């Protein structure tokens, strides 16, 4: 089954995402900040990344840009999952290379649909 990297500094959100993804049969990798997310993406080559935006140090926009512009990781779809819900945030997220942008709290059905679309599993 597909491996998904979750990059989120909130233990609560991490737990919730892991619970949903495991239930749907996905293998889960975890990083609790943007810098670790970039490193893990390069080392583990996950099939998809769920990226929070507001994190200390390297934020989600910066991490997404690094992942989507690096030769080794540019093929990995990055879905931003954030509480930042302004249109400008969505536009900026897509400009950094994100394939999708979801607003927290995310509906489980919507999350799985977006993951499947990005993995071409429909």
TrEMBL record:
Annotated InterPro entries: Bact_response_regulator (IPR050595), CheY-like_superfamily (IPR011006), Sig_transdc_resp-reg_receiver (IPR001789)
Full protein name: Response regulator PleD
One biological process term in Gene Ontology: phosphorelay signal transduction system
Record flagged with keyword Transcription: no
Gene: pleD_1
Species assigned in the record: Acinetobacter stercoris
SUPFAM superfamilies hit by this protein: CheY-like (SSF52172)
Positions of the Response regulatory domain: 3-119
Residue list for modification 4-aspartylphosphate: 52
Alphabetical UniProt keywords: Phosphoprotein
């Amino acid at each position: 089954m597909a491996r998904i990297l979750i990059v989120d500094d909130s233990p609560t959100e991490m737990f919730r995402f892991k619970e949903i993804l495991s239930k749907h049969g996905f293998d889960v990798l975890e990083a609790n900040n943007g810098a670790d997310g970039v490193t893990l993406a390069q080392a583990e080559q996950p099939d998809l990344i769920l990226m929070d935006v507001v994190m200390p140090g390297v934020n989600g926009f910066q991490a997404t840009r690094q992942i989507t512009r690096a030769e080794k990781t540019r093929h990995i779809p990055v879905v931003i999952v954030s509480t930042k819900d302004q249109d400008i945030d969505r536009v900026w997220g897509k400009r950094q290379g994100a394939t999708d942008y979801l607003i927290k709290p995310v509906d489980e059905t919507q999350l799985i649909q977006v993951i499947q679309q990005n993995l071409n599993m429909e």
